[in-house]
Amino acid sequence: MEADFWHQMWRSGRVGFHQPDVNAFLKKHWKKLNLSGHEQVFVPLCGKSLDMLWLNQQGHTVLGVELSEKALQEFVTENGLQATTLKHPRFSGFEMDKMSLLSGDFFDVSVKECREVKAVYDRAALVALPPEMRQQYASHLKAVLAPGVPILLIAMDYDQSLQSGPPFAVSALEVKALFEDRFNIEKVESDTFERKGVQTTENVFVLIPKT
Ligand SMILES: C[S@@+](CC[C@H](N)C(=O)[O-])C[C@H]1O[C@@H](n2cnc3c(N)ncnc32)[C@H](O)[C@@H]1O
Questions:
Q1: Can you list the pairs that 185-190 forms with residues at least 24 positions away whose Cβ atoms lie under 8 Å?
Q2: How confident is the model at residue 1 (pLDDT cuts 50, 70, 90)?
Q3: Interhelix angle 131-144/172-179, nearest 10 degrees
Q4: Which of 10, 77, 93, 185 would be a feasible disulfide site paired with 86, CB 3.0-4.6 Å?
């Protein structure tokens, strides 16, 4: 998707992907990444997700990246957080206790920003992107992450011919094709429901780096 599409969504408040509660799959499956609790977690395409606060509450520091500065401003305001302006040569954004939110393009995030990252949480990030960008997303993520960083990935799957994205349909096979060179992939939960009249499955994957 073009950046303008997302800026327009945030400007007009059409953010149906935003969840009013912490994601239940995150709460249930996060422990499967075998972290001790103090690590930095990278949240690509973070929106104003409350999941970042939950990760903080578990003891993690959070590094988010989001195209829309408005989304990040809403995150700070709606949650009554004390934030300062991020001082960074290439990103604007916000700095808080245990959280850095970069406002800008995920594809501009480099190894430097991710040097302390020890885990990744992707909910509605991969599925926000059309097919050709998903390949770039996976390649970029793998390029900026240090070896040994696990990922919790939540992706939607449905018959793409019945509905257009975003969210795009991303099958378990696609997740495998995108990540199996570097990760052992386990599907830990599936939930099927009807979304806008289309049978939809949400799959939760734990990606553990191959040694
Ligand atoms: C479907 S939403 C998901 C947001 C969040 N992960 C959540 O669970 O609520 C996708 C988000 O990615 C942002 N986005 C899209 N392309 C991006 C990019 N290239 N870099 C950074 N953020 C991007 C959009 O502005 C939007 O807020």
A1: 188/29, 188/32, 189/25, 189/28, 189/29
A2: low
A3: 40
A4: 93
Q: Is the CB of 6 under 6 A from ligand 1?
A: yes
Q: What does the pLDDT look like over 158-191, one tens digit per residue?
A: 999 999 999 999 999 999 999 999 999 999 999 9
**Is 30 known to sit in a ligand binding site?**
no
Q: Is the model's pLDDT at 34 over the cut of 80?
A: yes
The alpha carbon of 127 is separated from its chain's Cα centroid by a whole number of angstroms, namely: 10
Angle at 94 between CA 77 and CA 11, to 5 degrees: 55
**Ligand 1 mean position, distance from CA 184 (Å):** 25
Mean pLDDT of the chain: 97
Residue 115 known to bind ligand: no
Collapsed DSSP state (helix, strand, coil) of residue 157: strand
What CATH class does 3-10+19-209 carry? alpha beta
